[in-house]
Design a protein that fits this description.
321 residues, alpha/beta, 5-stranded parallel sheet, 12 strands
Length: 321
């Protein structure tokens, strides 16, 4: 073999070997952390599948549980940071704050936050800055519409109990809205603060002593971890309750009006995909809801002795019978 031929052949091999080696290397596995998995997260996982991620192939989801306990959220977030994961996905204000306390570098995608600016999670929606982005439910801004619907269902409504969580930074905005709206609508509001599991029974017992006509419930993550108890209590005490989350009505609640939470979970997956592709959370605007749902449970209404007005039924997106 001539020297020139040998060099050409050898040089080609030098170029070819690294290319072949690279081609044989498996695709990088994306690691996504989730705190407090629940059935609603399936909409998020579906969004990831639609973006091309398959668990066990190019995706690993790390789960940590705080069991809805605020004091365990920080430990759960720190566990995910220690792995480390590439992105942390969280539902609610408290879990988002816990993740922010655990890391300033790993991207965080927050889901269904009531008021991310008021809660101090981001400085602005258009440019959230830092390592956090996601979506909001426009929580307090929907209070007026929710009360309007409630009054249409129960015209004699005058005393409303509002369940809130003093550990949820987004809830101050709710309180401000209620204080502003209640006098205009001729309503007396009872504020029921529950921020730990051992407070539910005593707080609800005290609430009932004040004689509420109805109860209003937010999508607070901690409260949602006890929503079965809340629904059962309302049924037992013949107390009409308004929710934000559609699934609460499917589980036996009376009525809900608000953004589609399942849609927000699904859309959050697209932000995780963008971040895994190289986008910076600081430059991804916090998204606002585009899909809203009015859901009524006729079986629950009948049990409460309520007749849903035809004009309200006509506006309903889903009727559960």
């Amino acid at each position: 073999m001539k020297r020139r031929e040998f060099i050409t052949l050898f040089g080609g091999a030098v170029v070819a070997w690294p290319l072949a080696a690279r081609a044989q290397q498996p695709a990088k596995t994306a690691r996504v952390g989730i705190i407090d998995d629940a059935p609603i997260w399936e909409h998020f996982r579906q969004g990831l599948r639609e973006a091309g991620y398959v668990e066990g192939q190019n995706l690993a989801i790390e789960y940590r549980s705080a069991e809805g306990q605020p004091d365990r959220l920080t430990a759960a977030a720190r566990d995910l940071v220690a792995i480390p994961v590439d992105v942390i996905a969280v539902y609610g204000t408290a879990a988002t704050r816990a993740a922010q306390q655990a890391t300033t570098t790993i991207p965080i995608v927050m889901i269904a936050i009531g008021d991310p600016i008021r809660a101090g999670l981001v400085p602005g929606l258009a440019r959230p800055g830092g390592n956090t982005t996601g979506n909001t439910i426009l929580g307090s801004e929907m209070t007026a519409k929710r009360l309007q619907v409630f009054k249409e269902l129960i015209p004699q409504l005058s005393r409303v109990a509002f369940l809130w969580n003093s550990n949820n930074g987004s809830h101050q905005a709710y309180l401000d809205e209620w204080h502003a709206l209640a006098p205009k609508l001729g309503l007396h509001v009872m504020f029921v603060d529950v921020h730990s599991s051992d407070q539910f029974e005593s707080a609800f017992a005290a609430m009932m002593q004040q004689g509420p006509d109805a109860l209003s419930v937010t999508a607070d993550a901690f409260h949602m971890s006890h929503v079965g108890w809340i629904i059962d209590f309302a049924a037992k005490h013949q107390l009409p309750a308004m929710y934000i989350v559609r699934d609460n009505v499917a589980a036996g609640g009376l009525i809900s009006y608000g953004p589609s939470i399942s849609d927000l979970y699904h859309r959050a997956a697209s932000y995780v995909h963008k971040i895994l592709e190289g986008a910076k959370p600081a430059e991804l605007p916090v998204e606002q809801p585009v899909k809203f749902e009015l859901v009524v449970n006729l079986k629950t209404a009948k049990a409460l002795g309520l007749e849903v007005p035809p004009q309200l039924l006509a506006l309903t997106d889903e009727v559960i019978e």
